[in-house]
Write a structure and sequence with these properties.
The termini are far apart. This protein has 2 domains: 2-38; 45-156, Tetrahydropterin Synthase, Chain A. The protein has helices at 2-23, 89-112, 116-119, 125-139, and strands at 45-62, 68-85, 146-156. A hairpin with a 5-residue loop joins β1 (45-62) and β2 (68-85). It has a 3-stranded antiparallel beta sheet. The protein is elongated. It has 4 helices and 3 strands.
């Protein structure tokens, strides 16, 4: 009788140990995107500051009669950064040194001509796209791939 219980007990203990060891193995994933976490970064990007801006923007209301009336103005304050590849940062710095005044003028012009809807977008995606195009035409190069607009504050004047 004791031998029977001992055999059953040993089988149970061996079974528990076997299940524990089987549960400790590496899980195999069937999701193809899980391997993307293991791929090294393709390109290192760095932030390059393109200045701080305080831009008064007129708010235009279209009445539909081809008459636009300027109601109020508000001020848009932000810091602008370009995300650039680390190896191209020196070229961006040189372009910024050559064209800083013209780039600042372009940024101000694009912001002042933006619609209220574009300025109220949560991520300012349309405004960023227009700024990327304006900066690329100003410098003649496509180094400005992505812009960051940080510290955004808008308030009425």
């Amino acid at each position: 009788m004791w031998r029977g219980r001992l055999r059953v007990g040993s089988c149970v203990v061996l079974g528990v140990i076997g299940l524990a060891l089987a549960g400790c193995s590496e899980p195999t994933s069937t999701f193809e995107f899980d391997t993307l976490d293991l791929i090294p970064v393709q390109e290192e990007m760095t932030e390059f500051p393109l200045g701080e801006y305080k831009i008064p923007i007129p708010v235009v209301q279209d009445r539909g009669e081809k008459l636009a009336t300027r109601l109020n103005r508000f001020q848009l304050d932000f810091a602008l950064y370009a995300l650039v590849p680390a190896e191209e940062q020196s070229m961006i710095a040189a372009a910024w040194a050559r064209h800083e005044g013209a780039i600042r003028d372009r940024v101000i012009c694009v912001c002042r001509h933006a619609s209220v809807d574009e300025l109220l977008e949560p991520e300012l995606a349309t405004l960023k796209a227009r700024l990327v195009d304006a900066l690329a035409t100003q410098t003649g190069e496509k180094e400005f791939r992505q812009l960051l607009i940080a510290e955004v504050v808008s308030h009425p004047l």
